[in-house]
Amino acid sequence: MEKILSEDALLQFRRLTAEAQHIVICTHVNPDGDAIGSSLAMKKYLAREGKNVEVVVPTSFPDFLKWMPGASEVKVYAKHEEEMSAVIKEADLFLVADYNAPSRLMGMEAAVIANPAPKIMIDHHTDPADFCQVVVSRPDMCATAEVWCHLLDQTGELDAISHDEAVCIYTAMMCDTGAFTYASSRPAVYECIGKLLACGIDKDKIYRNVFWTASPARMKLMGYMLYVKMDVLTQMHASIMTLTNSERRLFGIKNGDTEGFVNMPLQIMGMRLSVFLAQDTEHPDVIKVSLRSVDDFPCNEMAARFFNGGGHKNASGGRLQCSMDEAVETVKKAIRAFESLLK
What we know:
The strands form two sheets. A six-stranded parallel sheet has the order 3-2-1-4-5-6, sandwiched between helices. The chain has a six-stranded mixed sheet with strand order 7-8-9-10-12-11. Helices cover about 40% and strands about 15% of the residues. It has two domains: about 5-210, inorganic pyrophosphatase (n-terminal core), CATH 3.90.1640.10; about 215-340, Diaminopimelate Epimerase, Chain A, domain 1 (Roll). It has helices spanning about 5-20, 35-50, 80-90, 110-115, 145-155, 165-175, 185-195, 205-210, 215-230, 245-250, 300-305, 325-335, 340, and strands at about 20-25, 50-55, 75, 95, 120-125, 135, 230-235, 240-245, 275-280, 285-295, 310, 315-320. The protein is an alpha/beta fold. α5 (about 145-155) packs antiparallel against α6. It is built from 13 helices and twelve strands.
């Protein structure tokens, strides 16, 4: 497997983790499967080393990830702000998991940045900001969990990981690749998977736990979204779906019930881009934008140019502060601007 740190950086990583006693692992707002899985795997590794470790996330994560080993111990900053602010203040090391800039922490940013303790970034997003002492950033890798897998191998610890660690790493990689249907053509991805399978994980059960746990509300909403809310722009090979808070209430959906909806229109023959707009549950004047594409269409460029966001080539996101109607018009403007690439 690939060595992803120079010898000097590896020594610094070893020194910082060896000297620290109170470690906080933090990840981005609205954490996804890679964010939670990689964070939990990091926690289990550091706990084996005898460290006091907390995983603190800015906001809640989807219910379909809560079966993961250790997920019940994840602390949500927005729900326990005073308690978690104290934990963050006492930390003597931070692991920055699955994000490239402190702004991705949103409400938690000030507390983390105020603590001068060293920070180690483990990530796979482009353009990492300069706020960490050690940066392990590999945008070519499919998930932060894959980066962590290679780092464990380089430190000689991969063969010693527990079954639960392997479950977390595999789940994270699976979630960030749509069950290995995109961003996963490199042989090294499957070299990692082979190592994880050797730990005795049941990959089929993991798949069912993530993708086959739909509530009745999710199934009903899915039909509604496809039949009523999906606007297919056939000539542009693009689609737009929207979801308002009133529709959330109508169907009684829970956190995570819309996971993967943005991918569904890409099953249409010839479709290159899918955009999903969802009204923020806590800030109704904010529209969350999710973009997915196939082949070489650059979602990240569109997200940065039109939606105050970014991400990966085939999976990106952003946010707009406007009404839903205005957000739809912005999406159509973006699609027209990228017409030559879509056609």
